[in-house]
Amino acid sequence: MIVHALAALLQTQVPGLPEHRVANIFKPLASPAQSEYEIAVFVIAITTVIFVVVGGLIVFTIVRFRRRPSDDTRQEPPQVYGSNQIEVAWTVIPILIVFVLIGVTARITAGVQNASPPASTVKVTVIGHQWWWEVVYPDFGLTTANEIHVPASPDGKTATYLTLRSMDVIHSFWVPQLSGKTDLIPNRDNFLWIDPKEAGIYLGNCAEYCGTQHANMLLRVIAHPPGDFEKWMAEQQKPAEQNPQMTEAKAMFESLSCINCHTVKGTPAVGKFGPDLTHLMSRETIGAGVLTNTAENLRNWINDPQVAKPGCYMPSMKLTDQELGQVVSYLESLK
Amino acid sequence: MASIDYPLEHPKIHPREFSFSETLYAWVATVDHKRLGLMYIVSALIFLVIAGIMASVMRIQLAVPNNHFVDPDTFNRLFTMHGTTMVFLVGMPIVAGLSNYLVPLMIGARDMAFPRLNAFGFWIFLFGGLLLYYSYIGGSGLSGAGSAPDVGWFAYAPLTEKAFSRGASSDFWALGVMVSGFGSIASAINVIATTISLRCPGMTLSRMPVFVWVMLVDAWLILVALPPLSAAQIMLLLDRSLGANFFNTQAGGSAVLWQHFFWIFGHPEVYILIFPAFGTLSEIIPIFSRKPIFGRPAMVGAVVAIGFISLGVWAHHMFAVGMTSWSNTFFAASSMLVGVPTGIKIFNWTATMYGGKLRFATPMLFCCGFLLQFLVAGLTGIMLAVAPFDWQLHDSYFVVAHFHFTLIGGLVFGVFAGLYYWFPKATGRMLSEKLGKWHFWLFCIGFNMTFIPLHFAGMLGMPRRIYTYAAGRGWESWNMIASIGVIFQAAGILFFVWNVIQSLRFGERAGDDPWDAWTLEWATTSPPPEYNFEKLPVVRSSRPLWDLKHPQDPDWKFE
Ligand SMILES: [Cu+2]
Ligand SMILES: [Cu+2]
What we know:
The complex is a heterodimer. Chain A has nine helices and 13 strands. Chain A has two domains: about 25-200, Helix Hairpins (Orthogonal Bundle), CATH 1.10.287.90; about 245-330, Sandwich (Immunoglobulin-like). By secondary structure, chain A is of the alpha+beta class. The relative contact order of chain A is 0.12. In chain B, helix 3 (about 70-105) runs parallel beside helix 5, helix 9 packs antiparallel against helix 10 (about 360-385) and helix 10 packs parallel to helix 13. The longest helix of chain B has about 35 residues, at about 70-105. Chain B starts with 19 loop residues before the first helix and ends in a 10-residue tail after the last helix.
C-alpha cells in the first residue's frame, strides 16, 4: 500500500506544475467551486448548530430520564399528551431556518449558473466516451484526449467554457477543486465554466456510473500559467512529427488496425473510435489516467490494454514482439 | 369472556403432531395475515443477509487501493444487486410484512380485508425476487454477454439499452423489480382497505395507533409512486425487445426522461422505506418511556405532510443534469421543506421520552440509536438539498454515507427495534436481552465506523460506484476504517441470528403482554390465534389497554 502510494506520488510529479491529487472540496481554486464552498460552509455551520442543540437535547433526555433502580416500577410518570404552543414553536423555527436556506440557495444557484463570462474565454468541448474523454478546442481546430489544458486565471480575467456532450451513455464531469459536477448526456449540450486561480494539475473523476470501467475514467485538468497555454496550443497544432528514422515503424503502425480507431493528424490514421494520438507523448497519462505515460507502461498498454483497464474498448492486438517494438517506438516519436 | 362449555378438568387436548409436508402445505396455502406477514419478514431478512454479504465483498475490494479481490464487472454487478435487493427485496417486504402482521391486530380485526390478494401479493413478490436472482444463471441470454444486471439500482438510460447492455440482464432487472412491485401494490391496496373498513368498534381514525396511520400513508405512497416505475420499466422492456425508442438516445430518445420517471418513484420510495421505522418508534418509545406519544395529531399530520411533500422533490437527484437555475431552486426548496415535518417527528419522539421513566431494553436502545443517527441523516440531507453544495456532493461517497445513515441508521435500527419488540407476540418467547445488547452495541459501533468515514471520502472527491481507486488521493484511510467497521456489523448480525435461533427454542415465555403495553395486539395471546381475537374488542381511546389497566384515570376522559 505504502509502496503504491509512493510510486504514485513520485511518478506523476511533473516539474513545474504542482499536482493537486487530493481533490478536497474545501480547498476550492476556481470561482464555481469557491461559491459552492462558501454555501457549504454556511450550511454546515447551520446544521452543526442544529445537531448540537437537538442531539444534545436527545442525549440529555436519555440520561436525565433513565429509570433508576430506586424508581417504583408500578408508579407511572405523569401522562402528558402534548402541547400546542410547543408544537407551533418547533414548527415555526425550522420553517424560518428553511426559508433562510432557500434564499441563500437561490442566490448562489443563480450566481453560478447564470454568471456572465469574463472578457476572454477559451472554449472547450468535452465529449464523454466509454471510458475516456475527447477534448476539442473548436476555435483552434484541435482535438486531443483525456487531459484538458486550460489557461490559469490568477486575476479572474480569463475563463474556460466547457460544452459537455456524450457519445454513448451519461458521464459526469467532476474536478472538485474547480467546480461541482455537471453531467455529459447524449443528445444534449451542458455547460460549465472554470477559471483556475493557480497554475497546476487538478484531478477529478467521471462521477456518473457509465459501465465497466467507470472507475478508471479519470479527469486531469492542466492549468497553464499565463502565456504558457498559447505555447502549448502552438505545439499541439503542429502536425505529427515526420521523423525520417521512423518510416519503417510508421508503416508498421499504419498497416495495423490501430488506424481504424485512432487519428494521427496528417497520416492515414483517421479513426475516431479511440483517443487522438497525434501528440500522444505530450500527455502525462494513458488510458484516461489509469497509467502514467512511461515507455514501459505504453508498451504494456499496447500489448494488452485489458490488463490495466479490463473491459475497455481497445482490444489486445496480439502483436509480435517486433511489431510491438516498432509501434511503440513510432508512438514515442509523436511528441 | 365467552362461556366455557366444557368442564375445566377436561383432559388437555394435545394437538396432533403435524408432518413436515402438512406444515409446509399450511404455510404455502395460508391466507392468514400473520403467517404472510412473517413470511414477508423472514424473506426480507434472508435477502438482507444476501445483500449484506455482497456489501462485505465490496468493502473488502475497496479496503485498499488498486485491489484485485473482484474484477470490475463482478463489482458492478455486486453494487447493482446489493442496491436493488436492499430496496426492493428487503425494504419493500419489510413494509408489507410489518403492516400485514400488525395492522389487523392493532385495529382489532380478524384478518386483512382481502386475504387471498394478500397471499397473491407475497408470492408474486417472492417470484419477482427469484426472477431477479435467476439472472445470475439466465442473464447472459443468447448472446452470452453479462449475467446479473450491472447498471446500478436506478438503472440509468441509456446504459440499460440494448447497445450498452447486451444479454438479458437488464430485462431481468426490469421484469424482476416490476413483478415484485405488483406484490407491493397488492399489499398497499389491502392495507388501505383494511384500515378503512375493518377497524373494531370505537376505533375512530383519531384513535388509530400511530403505527397504523403511518402504514396507511405508506400504502397510499406506494399506490401513487410505484406505477410510474412500472410504466418506465415497461417502456424500457419495449425499447429492448420491440425496438421502441423511449430512452434510446441513439435514435433520439431521452436519457433524462428515464431519470424523471425513476425519481418520481424513487424519492417517495425512500419515505416508503423509512415509514415502517417511523411507525415502530411511535409505538415503542411511549411504552419504554411509560408516557403516551407526545403530540399525536402533530405526529400523524407530519407523516401526511411528508407523504405529500415527498411527491414534489424528485429532481433533487438531478441537480447535475443541467436544469435551469429556477428548477434547481424549486426542487432545493421543496426538499428542504421535508425537513420541517421530519424535524417535528424527532422533536415529538424526544418530548415523549422527556419526563418519562426510560427503560433501556433492546427495542428502546435501537430507538435511541435511530434518533441520533436519523438526525445526522436528516442534516446531511439538508446539505444535499442545497443545490450548489449538491453539485459537489452528488454521486460521491457522501451520498452513499447519507443514505446509509437513513436506511441503516434509520430504517434498519427501527426495524430491529420492532423485531425485538414484537418477537414475543409472534412467537410467544422473548428474545434474549443479553444477546440483544451485544447485537445493538456491535452493530451500532460497526455501522458508525463504516459510514461516518465515507462522508469524508466523498468530500475528498471519491465518486460512488468505482471498483477501485489509485493511491495518494486521500481516500485510503477512510476506506480502510469503513471496511473494518463491517466486521463489527457482521458480528452484530450474527448475534441477532443466534439470538433468534436460541430464543425460538429456549427463550423465556412471553405471556400476552410482556412489555406492559397499551395497544390491542397485546390483548390477545402470544402468538395470537388464527382469528386474532375471540371477541372483537371495543375501544374508547387510543390506548385501550391503558384504559383497562388504569380504570381510575382512563385516557378517554381526556381525549
Ligand atoms: Cu463514469
Ligand atoms: Cu430524494
